[in-house]
Specification:
Blueprint (H helix, E strand, L loop, with lengths): L2 H5 L3 E5 L5 H9 L4 E5 L3 H8 L10 H10 L3 E4 L7 E4 L14 H10 L8 E4 L7 H12 L8 E4 L9 H7 L2 E5 L2 H11 L7 E5 H32 L3 H8 L23 H7 L5 H32 L4 E5 L14 H12 L4 E5 L14 H7 L2 E4 L16 E4 L7
Parallel strand pairs: 1-2, 1-4, 2-3, 4-5, 5-6, 7-8, 9-10, 9-11, 11-12
Antiparallel strand pairs: 6-7
Helix pairs in contact: 2-4, 9-12, 11-12, 12-13
The structure holds ligand SAJ.
The site of ligand SAJ has 19 residues, from helix 9.
Length: 410
Amino acid sequence: MNQLEVRYPPKVVTIGLGYIGLPTAALIASQKINVLGVDVNPIIVNTVNKGKIHIVEPDLDTAVAHVVKNGFLKASTTMAEASIYLVVVPTPFKDRNEPDISFIEIATNNIIPFLKKGDIYVIESTSPIGTTEKMRDLIYSQRPELDGHIYIAYCPERVLPGNIMHELVHNDRVIGGIDRKSTAKVIAFYSLFVKGKLHSTNARTAEMCKLVENSSRDVQIAFANELSLICDKADINVWELIALANEHPRVNILQPGSGVGGHCIAVDPYFLVSEYPLESKIINTARQINNFKSFWCAEKIQSTKLEFELKYGRKASIAFMGLAFKPNINDLRESPAKYIVQKVLQNDNNGQYFIVEPNIMEHNIFKLTNYKEAVSLADIIVFLVDHREFKGIEIVKDKVVLDFCGTLKG
Ligand code: SAJ
């Protein structure tokens, strides 16, 4: 039997039952380890205790139903004693894009009274550099007798929404302890449920690694978006250009789109920019370029609409194809497509619009239209998200098409 299971009664508390916390809790529980999932939201807690889920993620429903039924996962709004505590709460922004670690602090303060020698404390939440050390100091300031007797580490998640249940198991992880014994102990714990490699480092490097991974993707997407702006002016097809450039053995340009959205890549780079503004020039510029791309798309739609109206002497109708923050998901958080639709509608709310999002049934603000119907009714068709449903869609010749995400590139 694994040494860890002998030393510690296998009881884990995950604080936060969101997009990462709930799948993580279910995965650990699937190893027949007792897990308590703690969340401030009683609706989420009740949902999980019924074996149901509050988010859309493939395979998560069956995983949660199974472990709740077998008694390995329970949810609660209140903390309980355990041996291993995982903090998986959000880190939102304060004013001026500064990260707000108050949820991590609150979770840690709730854990502190339960801590005992030999326990493990891990932060998974995306965090500014130095957060794990700050929490170590907070813990030891209240419980000095534990100094050097608990294991503290940072272990960021890397999973892609839509493929979380697979990636949680198979992705490599970076684990950074506040000291070597913490790193080793936390690696031993994660090896119970992760099949990917577990790479050891210190807490600060692990924190920065998470921020750098998402900033790197943001910078690369900004390059593609910048090319799309140049190509628009130079009358060059950006999709063909990138495909040709990528034939070079050492070039791998990503795809331009209607901007960068989601709760990670559009957010995490600010954690570096806000703390290291002088040093993070490319990262900051990439954020600006990707934000500008959405603004530019909205402007382009408006000028195209105006041109149409001047040419035909009547109002143009527009089909907005996609609202999600990326293809083939139903998540609208920080979605550039949603921003663009809102911006166009705000500027002219008397127009005729068909808003399409095949991954959701209904929306509380937007009236949704079936995508085939929208394409046949609208004068101007705007592809905002490269959903699989839109591929190969037939568009009659007299329509004006704005393809911001390469749906028609073939
Ligand atoms: N996008 C483009 N062009 C591309 C690729 C993406 O415009 O070529 C856009 C997407 O449409 C979307 C945004 O970028 O609006 C982000 O999408 P994504 O698929 O790149 O990433 P996320 O936000 O779903 O997940 C990212 C992942 N990070 C990296 O790939 C470095 C994931 O592994 C992380 O776990 C996740 O952030 C997170 O939670 O931090």
